[in-house]
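Chains adopt folds. We examine one example:
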Amino acid sequence: MTAAPVRATAQSGLPPHVRTAFGVNEIEPRPVEWAGRRAWHCGDILIRAVADNAVAAWSAGVLDTLEVPGVRIAKPVRSSDGRWVIAGWAASRFVPGTLEPRYDEVVAVAEKLHAAMADLPRPRLLENRDDLVTRSAAAAFGELRVTVDRSHGGALFDHLAAYRRPVHAEPQVVHPELFGAVLFDGDAPPAIVDLVPCWRPPAWAAAVIVVDALAWGGADEGLIHRWAHLPEWPQMLLRAVLHRIVLHAQHPDGGPRTLAGLERAAGLVSALV
């Protein structure tokens, strides 16, 4: 199984010096979509543009040596001068697979991944970080006061926020964006292709997957109950919904249709808190 091909455009070309840096200048690159992202397939290597050089370099440094039982990892590839990122481009070994609605398995991957990362120190790049995910998570945990426009779910946020109670789960490095980022290839172990760092309890990151699956993935309502054994689950779900409402309100792709999915997830979570 290969990554899905896409039409190349003049704006999406892979620069020749990047191909040279990653040692694939003799291979004709093929534009593909891999884990929902545009990339260039060059033999057994995938090269893709990254949104944040610091995050991409941190992710590669961790994945280079990380081993997660029962999970395939797209191992990063260094450039010829030893760097993980070249002019906003990163490379990794190609891992076959596609996105599939196997949401319980995605949550299981999160549990295994976070167990493997339990001893990682808090990344310095998270200090004073101000991006959509960081702001939304801080607002969900009540660490940042926000005003959400009522047309983007403000009333729902205010209603749910009133049900927040203190939580005691310890934070660690977690990946808060695993929904739509885990690849499946038949009976092969699931695969992850990169990491997005966040300093929150692991159960919260699992709850974000569940909320996303309920809101936008067509997941069955039983998903919310099958993981009820995770620590402080109702409050983690609540914070996951609040996180997504704030992020949705700031996201350029947010709209009435995506908000309707969040309202569905919020209704199911409300019954637990």
Remarks:
- The first strand starts at residue 4 and ends at 5.
- The radius of gyration is 19 Å.
- Residues 216 and 261 are 6 Å apart (CA to CA).
